[in-house]
From TrEMBL:
<protein>
    <submittedName>
        <fullName>Uncharacterized protein</fullName>
    </submittedName>
</protein>
<feature type="region of interest" description="Disordered">
    <location>
        <begin position="1"/>
        <end position="27"/>
    </location>
</feature>
């Protein structure tokens, strides 16, 4: 934990996730790719998830 100038504390996450090891959906993939959710982009994301699985998301995340 760290304290800021007003004395409030902020907690840092103890577990960081950087890839597809957690469940994700088409909207997550669309947003990770920098696109806005739309029917077309969501359909694109569904196809990518079906074809590539977690690798579809991992290519956009560190």
């Amino acid at each position: 934990m760290s304290a800021d100038d007003e004395g409030a504390t902020t907690e840092r996450p103890t577990d960081l996730y950087t890839g597809g090891e957690r469940p994700f959906d088409a909207e997550d993939l669309v947003r990770a790719s920098g696109r806005e959710p739309s029917p077309e982009s969501l359909e694109w994301a569904r196809r990518m998830i079906e074809e590539k699985g977690a690798a579809a998301l991992e290519r956009y995340l560190p």
